[in-house]
Design a protein that fits this description.
Number of helices: 3
Number of strands: 2
Helix content: over 70%
Largest sheet: 2 strands, antiparallel
Strand order of the largest sheet: 1-2
Radius of gyration: 17 Å
Order of helices and strands: HEEHH
Strand content: 5-15%
């Protein structure tokens, strides 16, 4: 059980490192502004998923699972950026 928990902690730490590396953060006086590079994030997701599929095909199931977790973490970050962008710019009836 301890080995499983430590493996999950390492996976979460790696995913967090990937997330911090993908979106540069700029601090502003009124709050925090996060700039997301959508094409780059989508490309990274596709590359990681392809790598996970290759690893799974080769029988490296644990490595494939970690790689897929990284891809899912970037996908969640991308979804949060898109949601924030949609909610941040309200549509006014003209």
């Amino acid at each position: 059980m301890r080995r499983r928990i430590s493996a999950l902690a390492v996976t979460a730490a790696l995913a967090g490192g990937v997330l911090l590396g993908t979106a540069p953060v700029e601090a502003s006086a009124s709050g925090h502004t996060v700039t997301c590079n959508y094409p780059k994030m989508r490309q990274e997701i596709a590359q990681l998923k392809a790598k996970a599929n290759r690893l799974k095909h080769e029988g490296e199931y644990a490595a494939a699972k970690r790689t897929l977790a990284q891809a899912n973490a970037i996908q969640r970050k991308l979804n949060m950026c898109e949601d924030a962008e949609r909610k941040g710019s309200p549509k006014f009836p003209g």
